[in-house]
Design brief:
Length: 358
């Protein structure tokens, strides 16, 4: 039975990945989820999982070397799937320090603990071990609106403190691959959307505000482009890379689904209007009048677009969920989990929202 150490499993992508893995492998695997439960971590995302015998949650900070070392000492870990990070660009612009702390130093702690546990006397590593570092396409910087793409060979050119911290963490992982032949892989994925995403990010924020009849803040001219991937397709890609990739390889993951922000916002409004029954009183305010252009994000990257050619040809992965289906599934999930939204938007979220959008 393989044992996975998942970091950041109480967050958006991590919790979807844990669901994906138990749906796929059932009792054949064991997962230990280590998460510090920051504002973005929510055990409610895993309430249907917590009773499983082959699942364990450990509350710990990835920067806490002793706590992480203890997990490796007490368990024979086969796979590390490293999601834990500060992940929101706007927060990184306001408070960069914690991004360097968690994303760079935390990754270093994870690498050192895995290296210590897996390294043999001759400097090689126990066979079959794998460390997957989950990263972002934002490390590559910003593309022009000219149809070019990010490839694995595209030079890093991060602009926000978030993307700079992720780029730095990728470099540290790469240095362990190059120096020690440490068995790691790096994946750089485009923007994800789906269930359990915290409503500071564009899609859940727009869904929630539309349902509440609140203004929909569009940064700048609304024409920035992101390449949106359904989160379960990302979870599948991560699993396939863990099982099929050669150690040391790096893969871009993307949906070939480029959309301007304003298109996304209009699609969400249209889809919600279509999905709400006529008897629902919220239907009266679901229209484009909610759209409000606001001051642009500082250093706002214009366009991201992934070329997923390498993962397709070497690993056999392709995005499976069309955006029109994925966005309906996502909106349906938020319809059915209004209580989840109420819990995460009470308390600190209000303060964040007022400071960010006042
Ligand atoms: P998230 O913010 O929803 O979740 C992050 C999780 O990490 C939370 O559960 C949080 O509690 C935990 N965490 C934060 N700091 C920690 C620390 N010091 N110690 C332990 N746990 C800590 O993020 P997400 O959107 O799920 O992203 C997960 C990973 O995927 C990140 O590394 C991110 O850079 C990357 N990524 C995200 C996207 C996206 O669109 N969301 C796209 C590509 C890559
Ligand atoms: P976001 O979800 O924060 O992801 P990222 O910045 O990592 O790509 O933002 C996606 C896009 O939406 C980005 O171009 C910024 C824009 N945006 C808005 O226009 N309004 C908002 O309120 C938010 C949160 C984002």
């Amino acid at each position: 039975m393989r044992t996975y150490l998942v970091t950041g499993g109480a967050g958006f992508i991590g919790s979807n990945y844990i669901h994906y893995m138990f749906d796929k492998y059932g009792d054949e695997i064991r997962i230990i989820n280590v998460d510090a439960l920051t504002y973005a971590g929510n055990l409610e995302n895993l309430s249907d999982i917590e009773g499983r015998d082959n699942y364990e949650f450990i509350k710990a900070d990835i920067c806490d070397r002793e706590a992480i070392e203890k997990i490796f000492a007490e368990n024979e870990i086969d796979r590390v799937v490293h999601f834990a990070a500060e992940s929101h660009v706007d927060r990184s612009i306001r408070n960069p320090e914690v991004f360097v702390q968690t994303n760079v130093l935390g990754t270093l702690v994870m690498l050192n603990c895995a290296k210590k546990a897996w390294e043999l006397e001759d400097g090689s590593f126990k066979s079959g071990k794998r460390f997957l570092h989950v990263s972002t396409d934002e490390v590559y910087g910003s593309l022009e609106e000219d149809g070019s793409y990010f490839y694995e060979t595209t030079p890093y050119d991060p602009h926000s403190p978030y993307s700079a911290s992720k780029a730095s963490s990728d470099m540290v992982v790469k240095s362990y691959i190059d120096t020690y032949h440490f068995p790691a892989n790096i994946t750089n994925c485009s923007n994800n959307y789906g269930a359990y995403q915290f409503p500071e990010k564009l899609i859940p924020l727009i869904i929630n505000n539309t349902l509440c009849g609140k203004k929909l803040p569009v940064y700048g001219d609304g024409k920035n482009v992101r390449d949106w991937l359904y989160v379960m397709d990302h979870a599948k890609a991560i699993d396939m890379v863990c099982e099929k990739a050669q150690p040391g390889e790096k893969y871009n993951i993307g949906g070939h689904n480029e959309k301007q922000n304003i298109e996304i916002i209009k699609t969400i409004i249209d889809t919600i209007a279509e999905m709400l029954p006529d008897s629902d009183p919220r239907k009266a305010h679901v229209n484009y009048d909610l759209i409000t252009y606001v001051t642009d994000r500082k250093g706002h990257d214009r366009r991201y677009a992934i070329a997923p050619d390498k993962i397709r040809s070497e690993i056999g992965w392709e995005p499976e969920t069309a955006f029109k289906d994925g966005i309906r599934l996502t909106i349906q999930w938020y319809f059915e989990h209004q209580d989840w939204m109420q819990h995460v938007t009470s308390g600190d979220y209000q303060k964040y929202y007022e400071e960010m959008y006042r």
